Structure formats: C-alpha cells, structure tokens
Amino acid sequence: MIFLDANIVDVLLMNLTHVGIGLSIFLFAYLSNMCFGIWQNTKILGEPFDWNKILNSFIKIICVGAGIVLLVMAVTFIVPFASAVGLEIPKEYESVINLIATISACLYASLRYIKEAWDKMGCIFNGKKVEGKEKAEE
Hints:
The chain is mainly α and about 140 residues long. The chain contains four helices and no strands.
C-alpha cells in the first residue's frame, strides 16, 4: 500500500502550478486594492499614512498565500488517501475535486479584492468614500 506514488506527485505539482498562477492573480488584486486604499484613506478620508497597515497587509498576503497552498495540498491528498484505505473514488471525480479546490481557493480570494479595488477606484475618481464604509480597508 503505497500512498505517495509518481502519479500523486505529478498531480500535486500540477495543482501547485495552478495555485501559483492563481496566487499571482490574487497578489495583483490585493496590491491594487492596497494602492487604492492608501489613496482613499490619505487623500479622501484625510487619515495619516500608516506603515502598520502596510506591514499587516504584507503579513496577510503571506498568510493567505500559505493557507491556500496548504489547503490545495490537503485536497490533493484526499483521493489517494481514500484509495489507500479502500475507498475507491472514480478517476473523473479526482480531477474535479482537484480543479475545484485549486481554482475556487484562488478565485474566491482574488474576486473579493478585485471587487474592493474596483469600488475604491470608482470612489477615487468620484472623490468620495466607499458606500457603507466609514474607513477603507487595505
């Protein structure tokens, strides 16, 4: 009963490649949101620039990125583990499980920050704060 075979290593590397691309999209969305947040907070809301917010944002990027990588790795091992303990999962489900985990984890995080960045950009161009928020998040 071998849990780690060549196939699982290939699947893991493929999933990590997809996660790398997804995390790049997340990083671009998050940094865009940060830039718009800095402008909105300092120029529109008149708050002082705060380096702690920048530091916290970079810590958040690292934590979210590591969390997504670990989540995808865990999901990648579900099917081989199930097979190793005697629960056979059809091959077509394996690829669906891996795709859903890989894509949804990155897309969820990316789309959230894309929407926030888009809202902040609109408010910057209109010269007003984000509706429903007293303070823009970074």
